[in-house]
Amino acid sequence: MRLGALEAGGTKMVLAVGDEKGNIFEETQFPTKTPEETMPLMIEWFKERNIEALGIGCFGPVDVNEGSPTYGYILDTPKLPWVRYNIVGAFKEALNVPIKIDTDVNGSCLGEMHFGAAKGIDSVLYITIGTGVGAGISIDGKMVHGMLHPEAGHMLIARHPKDKGECVCPYHDSCFEGLAAGPSIEKRWGAKAKDLTDNDEVWELESYYIAAGLVNLCLSVSPKKIILGGGVMHQEKLFPLIRKKFTELMGGYIRTPELSDMDSYIVPNSLNDEQGILGAIYLADEALKSNN
Ligand code: ADP
Ligand code: ZN
């Protein structure tokens, strides 16, 4: 089986061909420019490889609700040349294969559920903390979409009393992404996040915000496992701090076997940053099956 996969990001497009078992045969990248420049390169690459279906994990906001008249359209993104671009329609016309699209973070969540740390678990939360904060959510084996798709990275979070920094989100005075994503760390402390490794104060505050976001999500969607990825999570020391603060902030309110083993409940991504592309492979497999 030759399944095409695309992880569409704001700076780069990652393309792969693989199979339903999660083997990747070939992978390449193109910089994300305008659709006029980037789409023909991607279409040619997939055409030459005779793919049977295509799965796309896409930056948002994007219409991922099958049945909607604008299914597969990128919506009002800050990446202006892509606003209202029908990415699924363009690939469909050029490749004539079944296609399924989801958000990039739902793609990563699917990758971990089918090939990684959350294998065999049906209710999973995947959070990326990088340039932004994004959440992919699966409940009872179904990716959560709802009205649009979750944008839990922008949930409002109370500021820590000791935080002298500012929320860098242009929309909100005090949201998860604006307080905890890489750019907010860098603005608050005036240095690259990776150069702040030895400053304990930085990671104390960072882990507080991440734990607060996770507690809110745990209380609202009840995942059986939480997986954390993205550039900021390369700071491995964050994991024990987040687990400890999560338990403190939860205040003992929920008692489940999962929460009694925090080392297994909140874990790093497990697929060497291939979770997104593997999720897209899984989406391609789904597209093929629903077409047959
Ligand atoms: P994107 O979110 O754009 O896909 P990444 O997930 O790589 O990209 O996240 C980039 C962010 O992660 C930057 O803001 C950067 O400061 C931060 N980052 C990258 N490496 C590290 C590190 N080792 N420690 C802490 N933060 C890091
Ligand atoms: Zn926000």
Topology:
Layout: E1 3-8, E2 12-18, E3 24-31, H1 35-48, E4 53-58, H2 87-95, E5 99-103, H3 104-115, E6 124-129, E7 133-139, E8 142-143, H4 176-180, H5 182-189, H6 200-221, E9 225-229, H7 238-250, H8 262-265, E10 266-268, H9 275-291
Parallel strand pairs: 1-4, 4-5, 6-9, 9-10
Antiparallel strand pairs: 1-2, 2-3, 6-7, 7-8
Helix pairs in contact: 1-2, 3-9, 6-7
Bound molecules: adenosine-5'-diphosphate and zinc ion.
Which labels suit this protein?
single chain, alpha/beta, Nucleotidyltransferase, domain 5, five-stranded mixed sheet, binds zinc ion
Describe it.
- The protein has 292 residues and is an alpha/beta fold.
- It has 9 helices and 10 strands.
- The strands form 2 sheets. Strands 3-2-1-4-5 form a 5-stranded mixed sheet. A 5-stranded mixed sheet has the order 8-7-6-9-10, sandwiched between helices.
- The chain starts with a strand and ends with a helix.
- The model has no long low-confidence stretch (mean pLDDT 97).
- Bound molecules: adenosine-5'-diphosphate and zinc ion.
- Residues 9, 130-132, 182-183, 186, 192-194, 230-232, 234-235 line the site of adenosine-5'-diphosphate (ADP).
- The site of zinc ion has 7 residues, from α4.
